[in-house]
Amino acid sequence: MKKPRALVVDDEPDIRELLSITLERMNLDVTAADTIGAATRELRANHFDLCLTDMRLPDGDGLSLVEWIQTQKPQTPVAVITAHGNVETAVRALKLGAFDFISKPVDVVALRKLISATLRLGESIESTMQLPQVKLLGASRVMEQLREMIERVARSQAPVHIYGESGTGKELVAHLIHEAGPRRDGPFVPVNCGAIPTELMESELFGHRKGSFTGAVSDKQGLIQSAEGGTLFLDEIADLPLHMQVKLLRVIQEKSVRPVGESREQPIDVRILSATHKNLAALVAEGKFREDLFYRVNVIEIRVPPLRERLEDIDELVDSIVNKLGRQIGNRSLRITDAASKALSEYHFPGNVRELENVLERAATLCANGVIDIGDLQLRPKVAASSDMPMPTSVAPGERLGDALEDIERDAIVRALEQTRYNKTKAAQLLGMTFRSLRYRIKKLGIE
C-alpha cells in the first residue's frame, strides 16, 4: 500500500528532524521544506496528504501558507505549530482554514494524535460530501446553506459555536458535524451546561480522584475525558459560571485537563462544539461571559434558522414526524388532514421544530380513527415578539378574562420550560417565581 505523504515546513533543522522522524515512524513518506517558497514549490509539484508548518519562517508568516493552501490545494489538510500560549495566532490559523494546531515545545504523543486525525480526514472526504440528509430535513435555501456549512466545518478541528433559538436542532447539527468528520468513530458526548448543579460542575466535567472531597469514594472520569478521540458538545454554554469558564478556556488552550484532586494535567484529544440560544456577544458586553473564551469557542459560527424562516419545509417535516409517530404507536395508517396541514403551515412556531414534534405527538394521542384534524393540534395563540418571554398582544373580543389570563400564564410557563429544556428550577428562575409556585401552577394549568 502506498504510504501517505506529508510536507513538514520549518526553518529549524532540529525541529524538522524531530517531526520527520516522528512521522516516518508512523509510516509516512516525509518531505521537508525550510521556507514558504520551497513549500509552495513542493505543493505545486506533488500531492500531499497533510502539511505541518511552523508560524515563523524566513520569507513570511506561516498563516500566508495556510491561506495559499486553502485557495490552491484545498484538499490538503494543514496543521500549524504555534509558540506556547500564542492563542491569537492559533485562532487566526483555524479561522483561515487550518485543520488543527500544536504548541511548542512539540509533545510527541499529541503530535501523533494530530497526525492520525489528519490522515483520517482524508478518508472521510467522500462521506463528508454525502451527509445523511434524512436527519436534517428541508429543501429550503437556508437548509441547503446549513448543510454546506456542516460539510466545510466537518473537515476542521476548529471549535464551532452553533447558535439559534430553542428547538431549532442545534444538537442535531453538532452530531452531523461529528459524523461527517474524521472523529466519527470516536464518542460524541453531549453536555447540557445548564442542567449540572454548580457545585458538581467541576467534578462532572473534569473528573476527580478518590478522597479529593467528601463523597469521592472512587476515581471518576470526567465528561471531557470521556470524549477522548471524539467530540464534546457543550450545549447552553452561556450557562457556565464564570469560574468554570476560566477552567474551560485552559482546557481549550492547553488541550489538557486536571481532575479534582490530581496534581498533574492530563493531555486530551477532543474537538469542542458549543451551542446556546442566547446572544453570547451581548453576554460578553454585560460581563457575564468571558471575552477570551468567546473568541476561542466562536472560531467558526453556525446559525441554525428558526422554523418561521423555512415554512416551505413544514410539509416535509410533518410527513416525517407523522410517519415516525405511526410506527411508534403501531398505527401505520396515521395521517393528517389538509385543514390541519394548512393550520401548521400558517402557525408561528415559537418553539420551532421541537414544538412541531410535541404538537403532532399530542395530536396523535388525542385524534380519533388515526386522523389528525385541526382540532387535535391545540395550537397556542400567537404571541408578541420578544427576546425572552413573549406575551399575548391582547384578549380576543368575547373571551373570558380568566381564561385569557390562564392562556397567557400557560404560554409563558411552556416557553420557559422549553427554553430551559424542562429544568423546572431554571424555568422558575426565568419566570421570577419559586420552584414550589411553578410546580403548583403547572399542576393547576394541566401542563404535562
What is the topology?
Layout: E1 5-9, H1 13-25, E2 29-33, H2 36-45, E3 50-54, E4 56-57, E5 60-61, H3 62-72, E6 78-82, H4 87-96, E7 100-103, H5 108-128, H6 141-154, E8 160-163, H7 170-180, E9 188-192, H8 198-206, E10 207-208, E11 220-221, H9 223-226, E12 231-235, H10 242-254, E13 256-257, E14 266-267, E15 271-276, H11 280-285, H12 291-297, E16 300-303, H13 314-328, E17 335-336, H14 338-345, H15 352-366, E18 371-372, H16 374-377, H17 401-419, H18 424-431, H19 435-445
Parallel strand pairs: 1-2, 1-3, 3-6, 6-7, 8-15, 8-16, 9-12, 12-15, 17-18
Antiparallel strand pairs: 4-5, 10-11, 13-14
Helix pairs in contact: 2-3, 3-4, 6-7, 10-12, 13-15, 17-18, 18-19
Low-confidence stretches: 125-134, 383-399
Strand order in the largest sheet: 2-1-3-6-7
Secondary-structure-derived class: alpha/beta
Helix proportion: 40-55%
- Terminal CA distance reads 60 Å
In the CATH hierarchy, the architecture of the largest domain is 3-Layer(aba) Sandwich
The main pleated sheet reads as: 5 strands, parallel
Q: What's the shape?
A: globular
What is the β-strand count? 18
Indicate the mean pLDDT.
84
Alpha plus pi helix count: 19
Count structural domains. Answer: 4
What CATH calls the topology of the largest domain is Rossmann fold
What is the H level of CATH, i.e. the homologous superfamily of the largest domain? P-loop containing nucleotide triphosphate hydrolases
Radius of gyration: 26 Å
Question: What's the CATH class label of the largest domain?
Answer: Alpha Beta
**Estimated share of beta-strand residues:** 5-15%
